[in-house]
Specification:
This protein is an alpha+beta fold. It has helices at about 55-65, 75-85, 100-110, 120-135, 155-165, 170-180, 195-200, 205-220, and strands at about 1-5, 15-20, 25-30, 35-40, 45. Helix 2 (about 75-85) crosses helix 3 (about 100-110) and helix 5 packs across helix 8 (about 205-220).
């Protein structure tokens, strides 16, 4: 195993930010005493805790070769701006459940327009999309169109728990979450394969098949 400090802009070593090259070919980014990210067999695994310091975030991005956005935006603002940037889009419907979300969306709308995103912005969005798709096994966006399930199965929650286990390399944690926090009457084994949810799913996910597989892998 080889451990080395990351380097700054001037080429000097940065304290408390490390690259760890394991003997099995995996490469880790460690900030202080915490493993933040891992590259393994062309896949990227990230720590589920995203509350990083600015320094950790900076060198995490460097480790992942990610660009920094020219303008800081919230995830919702990024999504809305991308839609408004499309010449084919004339109206955007956004779900909101709190006043601060309404205010944020109004502010976002006020600075929107076709061509408002820079080429760097678009490249960053494309990179994030590709990275997320590579990490997420099931392409669920949690739109909740699959609900309500006639049998009470908590479909979005189960899919998220399963995806999180794969994406963050924390399968055992996800198994615990499934068994402790998903009520018995909302687990995947309650699915009767009516496939009503699949008729509503914009992503064409074979939900019934996933419910059976996830419960088989995670129950007990």
């Amino acid at each position: 195993m080889k451990v080395q400090n990351m380097t700054g802009r001037t080429g000097g070593k940065v304290a408390n930010q490390f690259i760890i090259d394991a003997d099995n070919g995996d490469i880790y980014f460690q900030s202080y005493r915490t493993i933040i990210a891992k590259k393994s067999q062309s896949k990227i695994y990230l720590d589920i805790n995203w509350d990083y310091s600015a320094t950790t975030g900076k060198y995490r991005n460097q480790f992942l070769h990610e660009n920094k956005a020219e303008t800081e935006r919230s995830p919702a603002d990024w999504s809305l701006q991308w839609l408004w940037n499309q010449p084919q889009v004339s109206l955007v419907l956004s779900g909101m459940s709190a006043l601060d979300q309404v205010q944020e969306n109004l502010t976002s709308a006020g600075k929107s327009g076709i061509g408002s995103l820079t080429e760097n912005d678009l490249q960053l969005v494309s990179h994030v999309k590709e990275t997320y798709q590579d990490m997420a096994l099931i392409p669920c966006t949690r739109c909740n169109y699959c609900l309500p399930c006639p049998e009470g199965v908590d479909i979005p929650r189960i899919l998220k728990i399963y995806n999180d286990g794969i994406m963050y390399d924390k399968v055992e944690t996800s198994k615990t979450d499934y068994n402790l926090w998903v009520p018995a009457d909302a687990k995947g084994d309650n699915c009767v394969v009516c496939r009503e949810c699949e008729e509503q799913c914009p992503q064409d996910i074979p939900i019934s098949d996933w419910m059976a597989q996830i419960h088989k892998e995670y129950a007990g």
